[in-house]
Design a protein that fits this description.
This protein has 110 residues and is mainly beta. The chain contains no helices and 8 strands. It is globular, with a radius of gyration of 15 Å. It starts with 9 loop residues before the first strand and ends with a strand.
Length: 110
């Protein structure tokens, strides 16, 4: 499929992280460099899941019952586990065996 984006259009990127191993992963960090053709949205107001922040996440922990937690982080460095500028960095902490985390950001096309 071909899609077209214009300057000023907003795109959402989601990163799925899953621990498929049998042991917990300690101090796990997600890091991705944004395209130079995009500008990060530092305060998402159109989607309540972002809570006016820049990064939203959903963590699904297997078990009985399955536990789902959600939250959001600011773009600023040092005030929580996420940072967003030209690079996205999220400290996911311990990723339990079988656990999945979806981390999303929005950018605007230059």
């Amino acid at each position: 499929a071909t899609t077209t984006g214009l300057p000023g259009d907003v795109l959402e990127y989601c990163f799925d992280t899953q621990n498929r191993g049998g042991a917990d992963l300690l101090k796990y960090t997600l890091r991705d460099t944004l395209s130079v053709l995009s500008v990060p949205v530092l305060s998402v107001t159109a989607d309540p899941a972002y809570a006016n922040n820049a990064i939203r996440w959903t963590r699904v922990t297997p078990g009985t019952p399955v536990v789902t937690t959600t939250g959001s982080y600011t773009a600023a460095s040092g005030d929580d586990a996420g940072t967003l500028s030209s690079t996205l960095t999220v400290n996911l902490g311990t990723l339990l065996a079988g656990e999945t985390v979806r981390t999303c950001i929005q950018t605007t096309i230059r």
